[in-house]
Amino acid sequence: MFAAVLDTSVLWPSLQRDFLLSLAVEGAYRPMWSTVILDELAHHEAKKLVSRGSAVDDAELAAQRLIGQMSQSFDDALILGWEPLEGTYGLPDPDDEHVVAAAEMGSAEVIVTENLKDFPTAKLPALIRAVPAREFAYDTVRQHLTQGSLAVIALCERSGRQGPKLSVSDLLTILDERYKMTATAELLSMAPGLRDILH
């Protein structure tokens, strides 16, 4: 199965994370990450929740609960043994070396990140490329349209537990306007499983 390392930068935005992971649940690809990515995500998630008014202890508990849910849902996503490769790529920011090391150790084909400048092609192993979330989502949905439709429906059905209840139309609008996944939203709007719901 096609494998992709998801950088913290694409996991931090909540709904984008839910969409990308919903695609993985439906079998469109295999997600991967390192302990460092999960630690960074927990830190930023807690910080985000505090900025929205949560108490520090509550925010940290919620962040750890998120990491636990991700780890349980994708028990083969955590890449181990990447540490010897860290520091061998010469990236602009040495703090990003763990991402490439995990990708190489896990035989991932893609690193999904919003920080493309930190992952120059010339510094990456030959079989690995870095792409933004919107490009990854489009390529994944284009190749797995049925799974993409199922991911949208499942995400909408789960919505409302925390935050507003989302219709398919709501979700596609958010993917388009908030996350710049315009091509993906357009593709999904024409998918057989969603077209009937929307029209």
UniProtKB/TrEMBL annotation:
<dbReference type="InterPro" id="IPR002716">
    <property type="entry name" value="PIN_dom"/>
</dbReference>
<dbReference type="GO" id="GO:0004518">
    <property type="term" value="F:nuclease activity"/>
</dbReference>
<protein>
    <submittedName>
        <fullName>PIN domain-containing protein</fullName>
    </submittedName>
</protein>
<feature type="domain" description="PIN">
    <location>
        <begin position="4"/>
        <end position="116"/>
    </location>
</feature>
<keyword id="KW-0540">Nuclease</keyword>
<dbReference type="Pfam" id="PF13470">
    <property type="entry name" value="PIN_3"/>
</dbReference>
<keyword id="KW-0460">Magnesium</keyword>
<dbReference type="GO" id="GO:0016787">
    <property type="term" value="F:hydrolase activity"/>
</dbReference>
<dbReference type="InterPro" id="IPR029060">
    <property type="entry name" value="PIN-like_dom_sf"/>
</dbReference>
<dbReference type="GO" id="GO:0046872">
    <property type="term" value="F:metal ion binding"/>
</dbReference>
<keyword id="KW-0479">Metal-binding</keyword>
<keyword id="KW-0378">Hydrolase</keyword>
